[in-house]
Amino acid sequence: MKQEDLSSLESVRFRYRAIRHPRMKLILKVQDQILTSLREFLRNEGFTEILAPIIGPATDPGIRGAKQVSIQYYDAPFKIMSSMILYKQMIISSVEKIFALSPNIRLEPPESTKTARHLAEFRQIDLEMIYASYDDAMNTAEELLISVVRDVRGNCSEELKGLGRELNELRGPFKRLTHKEAVELLRSKGYTMSYVEEIPWDAEVALSTWHETPFFVYDYPLTSRGFYDREDPNRPGILRDFDMLYPEGFGEAISGGEREHTYEGVLKRMKLTGVDPDEYSWYLQMLKEGVPHSVGFGIGVERLTRWICGLKTIWEAVPFPKVPGIASP
Ligand code: AMP
Ligand code: MG
Fold first, then answer.
1. Is the pLDDT confidence value at 14 over 70?
2. 250 lies in some domain
3. Ligand 1 contact via 246 beta carbon (within 6 Å)
4. Which domain CATH number covers 290?
5. Residue 225 forms part of a structural domain
6. How would residue 62 be classed by pLDDT, with cut points 50, 70 and 90?
7. Model confidence at 157: pLDDT above 70
8. Are 5 and 315 in contact (CB under 8 A)?
9. Does the C-beta of 298 come closer than 6 Å to ligand 1?
10. pLDDT band at 3, cuts 50/70/90?
11. Pocket of ligand 1, candidates 255, 301, 311: which has the most ligand atoms within 8 Å of its Cβ, to mutate?
12. Nearest residue CA, atom 15 of ligand 1?
């Protein structure tokens, strides 16, 4: 199998052939360093690693048109985690700063294959902390990425050379654009998008292409995100949340934010986003009994690997890729 074929869908269907390509080994070595660095950084920052859930009565509904997967768990319908967000809000009552390597399943629409950055099975390093704001979370995200890049440059220079990737050292602070500023910029360049929606996939790539270093977009509009992102009490309609985007056209890296953690607040938001509260009974009961205010984010491991290694597609950044619409090992 030739190098260019690793970004083909054939390489996904016949993974047992593609996996033998020398390039695959370089990528997996870098990925090992990325995972080590992420964990080292977070432990040094006082985070405790916990085990992520894989199934449960409910999961994250805010997954932009992807489908959740249901399974029969004895007599109860269960979901496979699309993200562990609801559980992060549970565990911070025990440990104040946590992270987990969380496997997620989202049946993204088959056409998302064209973005080269969507998988149906992926992993996040998902973290959460109490007594902190979304500014703190953005600072943590920034330092985390700087630290991973430093380690990879230091310990994997041969692998990066083999992959033909020039990875520059990062320096903070990263640029921070409000969602409104990002939309204004996009509109000024001819993208027709509104101020109250998520940034569409093609616009996300464009924004990312116009940047040479990672950057943040923050303060998303209320209607663009799930019920758990906290609305700013002093600025109705604006969420205290953020994304980090990679440069060079690689697109979204991280989503995060402060949590709406009051029972009444979440119920109101569920109504607004058309989510059935009955499906979230344990979660709502937990909120009624009280959880601390918290903030967190998730960074996709395959997307991080793709950007660090400079790969054409996300399915080169995972040993056993599940690409939307494609049945493969
Ligand atoms: P989200 O909660 O949807 O913002 O997801 C959190 C992070 O997980 C994103 O910022 C991405 O890095 C990653 N991610 C989300 N969906 C996918 C997907 N379908 N394939 C790969 N990575 C994903
Ligand atoms: Mg996101």
1. yes
2. yes
3. no
4. 3.30.930.10
5. yes
6. confident
7. yes
8. no
9. yes
10. low
11. 255
12. 300
* 29 domain residue, yes or no: yes
pLDDT value at position 27? 98
Predicted confidence (pLDDT) at residue 36 exceeds the cutoff of 70: yes
Q: Report the pLDDT value the prediction gives residue 4, as an integer from 0 to 100.
A: 61
Give the rounded distance of the alpha carbon of 101 from its chain centre.
Answer: 12
Q: Is 157 exposed, middle or buried (0-12, 13-18, 19+ CB in 10 A)?
A: exposed
State the burial class of residue 52 (Cβ atoms within 10 Å of its Cβ: 0-12, 13-18, 19+): buried
β-strand pairing of 215-218 with 175-178: parallel
Which residues lie below 8 Å from residue 139, measured CB to CB, with a gap of 6+? none
**Cα–Cα dist 227/160, whole Å:** 40
Q: 124 CA to middle of ligand 1, Å?
A: 7
Count of other CB atoms within 10 angstroms of residue 190 = 7
Q: Nearest C-alpha to atom 3 of ligand 1 is from which residue? A: 63
Please report the atom of ligand 1 found closest to the CA of residue 314: 21
Pocket test of ligand 1: the residue of 101, 239, 259, 303 to mutate, having most ligand atoms within 8 Å of its CB, is 303
Cα Rg of the chain, angstroms: 19
pTM over 0.90: yes
300 CA to centre of ligand 1 in angstroms: 5
Q: How many domains does the chain have?
A: 1
On the question of pLDDT at 41 being above 80, the answer is yes
pLDDT at 5: 84
pLDDT at 63: 85
Q: Classify residue 213: in a domain, yes or no.
A: yes
- Atom index in ligand 1 nearest the CA of residue 63 equals 3
The pLDDT > 70 percentage for the chain reads: 99
Contact 99, 299 (CB under 8 A): no
